[in-house]
Amino acid sequence: MTSATLIDGKRISAELKSQIATEVSEFVAAGGVAPHLVVILVGEDPASQVYVRNKQKACEAVGMKSTLIRLSAETTQAELLDHIARLKADAGVQGILVQLPLPRQIDEQAVLDAIPPHKDVDAFHPENVGLLVQGRPRFLPCTPAGCMQLIASVEPNLAGKHAVVIGRSEIVGKPMGLLLIQKGVDATVTICHSRTRNLTEITRQADVLIAAIGRPNFVTGNQIKPGAIVIDVGINRTEDGLCGDVEFASASQVASAITPVPGGVGPMTIANLLKNTLTAARLQQG
Ligand code: NDP
User: Fold this and answer.
1) What is the pLDDT of residues 52-80, one digit of tens each?
2) How many angstroms separate the alpha carbon of residue 246 from the centre of ligand 1?
3) Which of 64, 68, 84, 122 has a Cα at 20 to 30 A from 209?
4) How far, in Å, is the centroid of ligand 1 from the Cα of 222?
5) Ligand 1 atom at minimal distance to the Cα of residue 214
6) Over the stretch 127-161, which tens digit does the pLDDT of each residue have?
7) Helix (H, G, I), strand (E, B) or coil at 26
8) Which domains, from first to last, does the chain contain?
9) Taking Cα atoms as reference points, which of 131, 150, 122, 147 lies closest to residue 276?
10) Is residue 279 helix, strand or coil?
């Protein structure tokens, strides 16, 4: 039996998407053109294909236009950059997303740097990262923003609370820490990584624990402070199906609230992508 409250990312993301759908129809009614997101998928990675399909479906469900550009796994960096340059110049495209990971021959950072900041709905461009660091974000990074909304659904006040993030990737861990230390949120943040010593000692101090590691069932109940909020970002494919970075069975006996995998952070990431695409359309269409 689960003692923790289940934080339902499906429900919370559905609410956010319904709000976005309303805003899109108001935007169009006021003379704007329906926001248009272009997703570029390079190669045949099965997980990426699922993510891209879900992003496209979500766009259509809220009244946005989405286009998928599929490129072969042999695509060169120059070819990919040409596509981005064309989309950069196209006033009919408000959002550009390059699905990661990219094949080895392509320098991921060079590609992310080439996306024009106003169309960078993933918020990975250095200008958008810089604005976030300075506390004046243009776009919020989708997964960390989703985690913040999930946390807020059970605890709106994080001031002075200790938030521990496991993982320091550019996509999740680092921006997650930045959102938590924003003025107005005011958590005290510890970011852990593979070289952190005494991880359990640290995680057991967390009022809010965010796991973004990429290792199945890595965090167990004995590493969690009783009553903590636990956000599991991990998506791991195992022989038994999908699982998170947190061992749900033991963690849910200790935490006060916890996200499931699937149905937790994943749907929030997509909802925030839609939110950013609408913001991009507003910025570009005045
Ligand atoms: P990365 O592999 O880029 O980063 C993993 C982080 O975990 C690194 O900072 C790494 O440390 C740290 N780590 C690895 N092993 C340990 C350890 N033993 N102890 C402490 N820290 C450790 O992964 P991502 O951040 O991109 O993704 C993390 C997970 O989240 C994955 O499962 C991914 O699939 C999932 N994900 C889910 C999303 C969603 O929408 N739900 C979106 C994005 C990702 P170091 O830096 O030292 O190597």
Assistant:
1) 999 999 999 999 999 999 999 999 999 99
2) 12
3) 122
4) 21
5) 32
6) 999 999 999 999 999 999 999 999 999 999 999 99
7) helix
8) 33-122 (3.40.50.10860), 142-266 (3.40.50.720)
9) 122
10) helix
Q: Which of 4, 9, 6 lies closest to 226 in space, CA to CA?
A: 4
Residue 172 CA: nearest ligand 1 atom is 25
pLDDT surpassing 60 at residue 1: no
**pLDDT tens digits, one per residue of 166-203:** 999 999 999 999 999 999 999 999 999 999 999 999 99
Looking at residues 243-251, what average pLDDT do you find?
A: 98
Which helix or strand (DSSP H or E) is residue 56 part of?
helix 46-61
DSSP assignment string, 202-271: HHTT-SEEEE----TT-B-GGGS-TT-EEEE---EEETTEEE-SB-HHHHTTT-SEE--SSSSHHHHHHH
pLDDT of residue 2: 62
- DSSP character for 117? G
Q: Is the dihedral of CA 219, 220, 225, 230 positive or negative?
A: positive
Catalytic residues: 55, 99, 122
Report the separation in Å between the CA atom of 27 and the middle of ligand 1, taken as the mean of its atom positions. 37
Beta bridge partners of 3: none
Q: Is the dihedral of CA 278, 60, 172, 69 positive or negative?
A: negative
* Nearest atom (ligand 1) to Cα of 269: 40
Sheet containing 36-42: order of strands: 65-71, 36-42, 95-98
* Neighbour-count burial for 162-183, b at 16+ CB within 10 Å, e otherwise: bbbbbbbeebbbbbbbbbbbee
Give the other-Cβ count within 10 Å of 51's Cβ: 19
Q: Is 90 exceeded by the pLDDT of residue 252? A: yes
Task: Report pLDDT for 26.
Answer: 98
